[in-house]
Specification:
Keywords: Glycoprotein, Hydrolase, Protease, Secreted, Serine protease, Signal. Pfam families: fn3_6, Inhibitor_I9, Peptidase_S8. It is a single chain. The chain is α/β, with parallel strands linked by helices. It folds into four domains: about 10-95, Alpha-Beta Plaits (2-Layer Sandwich), CATH 3.30.70; about 100-330 and about 435-510 and about 520-560, Rossmann fold, CATH 3.40.50.200; about 335-425, no CATH class; about 565 and about 605-705, Immunoglobulin-like. Helices cover about 20% and strands about 25% of the residues. Helix 7 runs parallel beside helix 11 (about 490-505). The longest helix is centred in the last third of the chain and has 18 residues, at about 490-505. The model is unreliable at about 1-20, about 355-365 and about 470-475 (pLDDT under 50). The structure holds 2-acetamido-2-deoxy-beta-D-glucopyranose (6 copies). The site of one 2-acetamido-2-deoxy-beta-D-glucopyranose has 3 residues, from loops.
Length: about 700
C-alpha cells in the first residue's frame, strides 16, 4: 500500500511537467501476477493508473487485455508513458502500428475427398472451431449457411455481436461468433468513418473465412470461371469472425488484433487463421506475443508468410510457435480461345505485346490498360505462367508463339477480324504446385534460427466467397459484383492450412498445436504433379526450402504421420532463454514468471537450419531431436539421409525403436563441412522410414550462408 501511494505522487509531478507533448497510442505490457492491493481487477488498476498519469482526469484504457497479452492500450503523451514505465508491474510498451493486409478447386488439388483421408476421418472438421482475425465477414453468403450443420459444441463461450447492418440473427450453426474490434483504429484515425459491426465491405475476410471452413455451395463460379461446388478446407468446421477496424488506405492496428486474439482465446476456438503482417523482434511484436498465449492455450495458429517476394529474409511473421504459410499455385488454368477471321465482330480488338516482368522481377498488371475502353484485347506475354490479372475489358493473354500467329494474321490481312471465347477452365496443368513469386522467402529475421516458411499451401487464383453488395473487389476497383471472388496471396494460403489443421484436430483431439504442425510438415510433398521437384514460379528452378519450407501440405498424409516432433510451452521458453534476451523481454512474451534453467536454441522443430557463414576452414553443427510415436504400439524406423554435396551428415542412432504409443526416442544430427560463400543455400533431408510399414517422417535440412 505504501509503495503504491508514493508512486502516484511521483507520477503526477512528472505529468505536470510534460503535459503538452504529442500523444500516441501505446500497447503496454504488464505483469499479470502483480495487482496492487486496493484493486479488484487489472482493468480497475489500469484505469486508476491512467487517471493518475493524466492529472486525475478520469481516463480509461482503449482496451485492457487478459489473455493474448496482459496489459492495455491507451493514448499517452511521452511524459505519461514515462510515468507508466515506473508503475508496478510495467514490463514493456510498443507504439500501436498500422498493419498490412496480405492480399474450389484447390481442395481437390490437395487430394481432399469424401471417400478416404482427412475429410471422413475428421467428419469434415465437425465441431472444430476456427477463428478468423480479418476484415470482417458477409454473413449472408451461402458459404456461411448452416445447412447440414449440427448443434454448436457446448464448450463454445463466444457470442454474436450485432451492429451496423449486422443483426445477431445472422449468426448460425456455421458462423457461430462475430465480434468487431476497431477502437485502436479509431484512436489513430478519429476522422475516418468506420461501421460498427463485423459487416464486410471489402471482401478479404469473407474470402479467407470461406476458404478455411465455408459450407458447400453448388454452382459457384467467378463470372463463369471455375464452376463447381465451393467449400472450405474443413467444410463442417465452425467459424468465428474477429473483425478488425480496417480501410484499404490505413490497414488495421495491432491493438485491435490483440483485442481480437484475446477474445478468441476466451471464447474457446481451436484454430486461428491470421493473414496479417506485423513486424519487430518477437518480444516487441504484439501479434507474436498474442499468438504465444494462444498456443499456450492449445490453439493452433496459421499465419500468412507475407507477399514480399523473392528476396531472402523477408518473412516478418516467423515466430517459432506458429505455422508460417507460403503460397503455391494450383493445377487450374482459366483460358480463352481466339478464333481469327470471322464476320460477327463488333468493336475493336487490340493486339499488343506486354512485358509483365518489371525491374523488381515481379509480375505486374499492365497498368497502361487500366480504364481503356476497347471491345477486347489479345496480349502477347513472355511468360508461360501468368499471374492473376484483372482488367476492365475482355482480354486473352497468349504466349509469343501464338502471338506470332496473331501478328502474322493481322499484318497479312486486309480487314483482320477475331472472336474471343471465354470461361474455359482447365484442370490438371503441369507442373503444379509452384511457389508463387510473391510468397515471402525465409529465413525470418524475427526468428533466424528456425527455418521459415514452414510449408506452402494453395494461395494463387483462389475462388471463394466475397461480399456481395458493394461494387468493389478487394483486388481492383471496378463495378463487378459477384458472390465469389478470385484472389491470390499468402492470405489465401493461411486459411487453407488452418482448415487442414482443423481436420487434424478433429481427427486427433489430443494433439497439441505443435504436434499438428509437425504432422503437416513431415508429410508435405516436395515433388509436383509431374513428379519433379517443386519449382519457383517464373524461374523454372527448383524451389529451395527458403521458399517452400518442408514442401506443399498434404492433408491425407498428415492425418497419419507415424511420428511427431512435439514441443510444449516450456520448450519455447527454453528457446527464448537461449536467445540472450533480457528477463523483461522474455516476460513480455511469457507474461508471467518463467524457468530459464535449461536454455537451448535447439528447439524440437521438424526442420533443421544450419548457418555456415564462417570465414575459412570447416565447421560442425549438432542438433538433437525427440520423436513421439503417435501410430501403433510397436514400430521401428531407420534414418535415410538425402545428402548435401560437400557435407558430412551423421545421424545417431540410425534406428529408433518404439515399443508403445506416445513413447519418445531421441537422435542427434551432426553436420560437418566447409564454410560457405555468402548467398549459398544448400539442402538435403533426413527421413525416418518405418521398417515394414508405411510411415516416412521427413525433415528438411538447410545449410546456408545468407
Ligand atoms: C446498410 O444496409 C443498408 C440497406 O441494405 C444500405 O442502404 C446501407 O448503405 C448499409 N450501410 C452501410 C454502412 O453499409
Ligand atoms: C480531424 O478533423 C478535425 C476537424 O475537421 C481537425 O481539426 C483534425 O485535425 C482532424 N484530425 C486528424 C487526425 O486528421
Ligand atoms: C522474353 O524472354 C526471353 C528469355 O527469357 C528474353 O531473352 C527476352 O528478352 C524476353 N522478352 C521480353 C519482351 O520480355
Ligand atoms: C548467447 O550468449 C552466449 C554467451 O555470450 C553466446 O555463446 C551465444 O552464442 C549467445 N546466443 C545467441 C543466440 O546469440
Ligand atoms: C526449473 O526447471 C527445472 C527442471 O526443468 C527444475 O529442476 C527447477 O526446480 C525449476 N525451477 C523453478 C524455480 O521452478
Ligand atoms: C582465409 O584464407 C585466406 C587464404 O588462405 C587468407 O588470405 C585469409 O586471411 C583467411 N581469412 C581468415 C579470416 O582467416
Amino acid at each position: 500500500m505504501a509503495l503504491f501511494t508514493s508512486f502516484l505522487c511521483l507520477i503526477s509531478v512528472l505529468a505536470a511537467q510534460l503535459a503538452l507533448s504529442h500523444s500516441e497510442t501505446y500497447i503496454v505490457h504488464m505483469d499479470s501476477t502483480l495487482l496492487p492491493t486496493p484493486f479488484s481487477s487489472h482493468h480497475h488498476y489500469y484505469t486508476s493508473l491512467l487517471t493518475s498519469v493524466s492529472n486525475y482526469k478520469h481516463s480509461e484504457p482503449i482496451y485492457s487485455y487478459n489473455n493474448a497479452i496482459h496489459g492495455f492500450t491507451a493514448n499517452l503523451s511521452p511524459s505519461e508513458l514515462d510515468a507508466i514505465k515506473k508503475a508496478p508491474g510495467y514490463l514493456s510498451s510498443t507504439r500501436d502500428e498500422p498493419l498490412k493486409l496480405l492480399t474450389t478447386h484447390s481442395l481437390d488439388f490437395l487430394g481432399l475427398n469424401s471417400l478416404y483421408g482427412a475429410w471422413p476421418a475428421s467428419d469434415f472438421g465437425r465441431d472444430v472451431i476456427i477463428g478468423i482475425v480479418d476484415t470482417r465477414i458477409w454473413p449472408e453468403s451461402k458459404s456461411f449457411s448452416e445447412d447440414g450443420m449440427t448443434k454448436i459444441p457446448a464448450r463454445w463461450k463466444g457470442g454474436c455481436y450485432g451492429g451496423t447492418n449486422f443483426s445477431t440473427s445472422l449468426c448460425d450453426r456455421k458462423l457461430i461468433g462475430a465480434r468487431f474490434f476497431n477502437k485502436g483504429f479509431r484512436a489513430a484515425n478519429p476522422n475516418i468513418t468506420l461501421i460498427d459491426s463485423a459487416r464486410d465491405l471489402h471482401g478479404h475476410g469473407t474470402h479467407v473465412s470461406s476458404t478455411a471452413a465455408g459450407n458447400y455451395v453448388q454452382g459457384a463460379s467467378y463470372f463463369g470461371y471455375g464452376i463447381g461446388t465451393s467449400k472450405g478446407a474443413a467444410p463442417r468446421a465452425r467459424l468465428a469472425m474477429y473483425a478488425l477496424g480496417f480501410t484499404r488506405e490505413e490497414g488495421f492496428y495491432s491493438s485491435d488484433v490483440i483485442a481480437a486474439t484475446d477474445s478468441a482465446i476466451t471464447d474457446g476456438i481451436d484454430v486461428l487463421s491470421l493473414s496479417i503482417v506485423s513486424s519487430g523482434p518477437l518480444y516487441r511484436d504484439p501479434v507474436s506475443i498474442a499468438t504465444f498465449a494462444a498456443v499456450k492455450n492449445g490453439i493452433f495458429i496459421s499465419r500468412a508468410a507475407g507477399n514480399d517476394g523473392l528476396s531472402l529474409k523477408n518473412i516478418l511473421s516467423g515466430a517459432p510457435w506458429v505455422l508460417t504459410v507460403g503460397a503455391g499455385t494450383t493445377d487450374r488454368d482459366f483460358r480463352g480461345t481466339i478464333i481469327l477471321e470471322r464476320d460477327k465482330v463488333s468493336g475493336k480488338i487490340v493486339l499488343c505485346q506486354a512485358n509483365l516482368i518489371d525491374e523488381d522481377d515481379a509480375l505486374t498488371v499492365p497498368k497502361d490498360f487500366k480504364g481503356t475502353r476497347v471491345a477486347g484485347a489479345v496480349i502477347i506475354v513472355n511468360s508461360s505462367d501468368l499471374p492473376l490479372v484483372e482488367i476492365d475489358f475482355p482480354a486473352i493473354f497468349v504466349n509469343p508463339e501464338n502471338g506470332k500467329l496473331n501478328q502474322d494474321y493481322v499484318s497479312g490481312s486486309h480487314e483482320p477480324k477475331a472472336i474471343l471465347y471465354f470461361k474455359e477452365t482447365l484442370h490438371g496443368r503441369k507442373s503444379a504446385p509452384k511457389v508463387a513469386y510473391y510468397s515471402s522467402r525465409g529465413p525470418s529475421p524475427t526468428s533466424p534460427l528456425i527455418l521459415k516458411p514452414d510449408l506452402i499451401a494453395p494461395g494463387d487464383a483462389i475462388i471463394a466467397s466475397s461480399q456481395e453488395k458493394y461494387p468493389v473487389n478487394f483486388l481492383v476497383e471496378g463495378n463487378r459484383i459477384n458472390s465469389f471472388g478470385v484472389a491470390s496471396g499468402t492470405s489465401m494460403a493461411a486459411p487453407h492450412a488452418a482448415g487442414v489443421a482443423a481436420l487434424l484436430k478433429g481427427a486427433h483431439p489430443d494433439w497439441s498445436p505443435t504436434a499438428i504442425r509437425s504432422a503437416m510438415m513431415t508429410t508435405a510433398d516436395v515433388l509436383d504433379n509431374s513428379l519433379n521437384p517443386i519449382e519457383e514460379w517464373g524461374s523454372n528452378r527448383a524451389a529451395t526450402p527458403l521458399a517452400m519450407g518442408a514442401g506443399h501440405v498434404n492433408p491425407n498424409k498428415a492425418l497419419d504421420p507415424g511420428l511427431i516432433y512435439d514441443a510444449d510451452t516450456q520448450d519455447y521458453i527454453n528457446f527464448l532463454c537461449a536467445l540472450n534476451l533480457t528477463s523483461k523481454r522474455i516476460r513480455a512474451i511469457t507474461r508471467s514468471s518463467y524457468n530459464c534453467s535449461n536454455p537451448t536454441i535447439d528447439l524440437n522443430y521438424p526442420t533443421f537450419l544450419a548457418y555456415f557463414n564462417c570465414m575459412n576452414g570447416t565447421k560442425s553443427v549438432q542438433f538433437q531431436r525427440t520423436l513421439t510415436n503417435v501410430a501403433k504400439t510397436m514400430s521401428s524406423y531407420s534414418a535415410i539421409l538425402d545428402k548435401v554435396q560437400g557435407f558430412e551428415l551423421t545421424v545417431v542412432p540410425k534406428t529408433l525403436v518404439f515399443k508403445d504409443k506416445n513413447e519418445k526416442q531421441s537422435y542427434r544430427l551432426k553436420i560437418h563441412g566447409p564454410c560457405l560463400p555468402k548467398g549459398t543455400v544448400l539442402h538435403g533431408s533426413v527421413t525416418w522410414v518405418e521398417n515394414g510399414g508405411q510411415h516416412a517422417v521427413k525433415s528438411t535440412i538447410v545449410i546456408v550462408n545468407v
